[in-house]
Each structure stands twice: as structure tokens, then as C-alpha cells.
Amino acid sequence: MGKPRARLSEQERAERRREDRERLERAVAELLTSEGWKRWLRTRAVLHGYSFHNTLLIAQQAHARGIEPTHVAGFKAWLRLGRCVRKGEAALRVWAPMRIKQRDEDGEDTGERALRFRLAAVFDVSQTQVLDGADPAPLSPPCEPVEGDSHAHLLTGLENLAAELGYTVRQLPLQGSVKGWCDPGRHEIVVSEGISLNGQVRVLVHELAHALGVGYEEFGRARAETVVDAVTYLVLRSAGLDVSCASVAYLASWGGEDAVKTVRETAELIDRIARRIEQAIAPQDTEAAA
Q1: How many distinct structural domains can be found in the chain?
Q2: Does residue 213 share a domain with residue 253?
Q3: Among the listed residues 180, 182, 163, 164, the one whose alpha carbon sits nearest the alpha carbon of residue 172
Q4: 168 and 268 inside one domain
Q5: What secondary structure, in 3-state letters, does 34-102 show?
Q6: pLDDT by residue (tens digit) across 34-48?
Q7: Whole-model pTM?
Q8: Which domain holds residue 173?
Q9: Where a domain ends, among 98, 130, 162?
Q10: How distant, in Å, are the alpha carbons of 6, 7, 98, 101, 205 from that of 3?
Q11: Which of 39, 233, 270 is nearest to 143 (CA)?
């Protein structure tokens, strides 16, 4: 057996906590740039099984290494998938939950467990290679165009979520560029009947984001559209529909001295609403890693 791990002193623990806070603060600060914002969105879209904070950390670390993250897992998880991490690859660090034994004043185990988080090592698929003789598991489902009907099965879950929120969904023959709207006064969502089924999915996701509390009065038009456009991108991309992050709105100003606080709150809101809609259409795929 190896030597037991030396316990950290209180000063060492405080220093580690400070470094961890600074790491997260740097990741949040990157959201203040257009490219940093879009990097997080792309990361969150393909890694929706990870928590909000972990997607921030992965986006920041991967960018520093020149990696465009697509599928991230731990060392042992990659082995189960028929791949191994290449020798010399530096890990990405994310927060992983762990249960700590609770002890009484005499040092006896109370049987209770406290939830704590520790930094764990994960790797992107680009840092791995196929094991000799292995048949690696497929990692990504095919990405279908928004113009088709491939994702019509998602409409039921989206309509059920609308009903849960007290909204009815109607189809009307809309004209021009308007493909739908959300009327919170009447608790009604309207979708154009002249678009593809995948297009209806896109409109419903967008309007459900409004129905989940993102209105112009509360947020202002620019910030509200930033939120619902980002939610729509995240949900559709994670569901396997081919949409571009380039079309997602970005606010040039995030609130002066409170910019970091505002952008973080906005990103957290986007993540929370996207998860709510993702759970409605694919509950088995939306467990947060930490």
C-alpha cells in the first residue's frame, strides 16, 4: 500500500480555496468578451451533462490549451468507452461531488455524510486515442438540419411543458418573418403552421424560454433576447439539431461596474432555463455532473 495522503494544514486549505475561487473568477470574466461568451455557449451545448460552473471551467481551460471541447470524461470513463488518454496530456479540472464521513467529538463515525466538492481530472476526446483492439463507443449523435422533420418527437415534451406552465399552444398561418410569439397575458404560445416540424421545435423552445419568465418588462428587450436566443441554441444543439452559435445575441455592455455580476447571473439564468427545457424533452440526459 502507498503512503497515506498527508493532511493539509488550515493555511494550505485556505490557499487552495483562494486559488479555486480565482480560477472560477477568471472563467467568469471571460464571458465579458464576445468570443469568451460564445466559447462557453459552444461548451455548454455539447457538455450539457456538466454543471454551470464546470462548463465555465472547461471552456476556459480548453481555450488556453487550444482545444475545442466536444466530449469530456474522466480517465477511467474513457477506458470504458474504448479509448485511453494519451501519455503526457494535461487534465482539465472540474468540480466533482464527494461524500465525507461525519465524526463526533470522539472521532467516531456518526453514519452521516456531508457533501463536499473536490477538483477532479477530466480529458477531452481530442486528448485520447482508441485502445488497441477496442471497438470504441460512438460519442455524438448525428446532427440534423433545422429545416427538416427529424425531431418532431420533441414537440410532445415541449407542448407538455407549456401545459405545465399553464400555456396553450396554437398554430396559426403567420405572415412575414414572424414565426411565433408568447403572450403571457393570455397564457398562449402561437407557432406558425407553415414551417417544418423541426422549425416548430425551434419556435416552441424560444417561446417557452419567454414563458419561463424571460419577459421584456423584467429584462429589457436586448437582455431578454440574449437569454432566449442562447437558451434556444443550447437546447437545440444538445438535442442534435444543427444550429449556429454565431447567430446568438451578445450584449456589448453588461452593466458597468457590476458587469461581472450581471454576466454571471445572465449565464446562470440561461443554463437554468435550458436545463428545464432539456429535462422536458430528454430527462435521462440532463443530470449535472457537479
Answers
A1: 2
A2: yes
A3: 180
A4: yes
A5: HHHHHHHHHHHHHCCCCCHHHHHHHHHHHHHHCCCCCCEECHHHHHHCCEEECCCCCCEEEEEEEEEEE
A6: 999 999 999 999 898
A7: 0.83
A8: 144-285
A9: 130
A10: 9, 12, 21, 21, 53
A11: 233
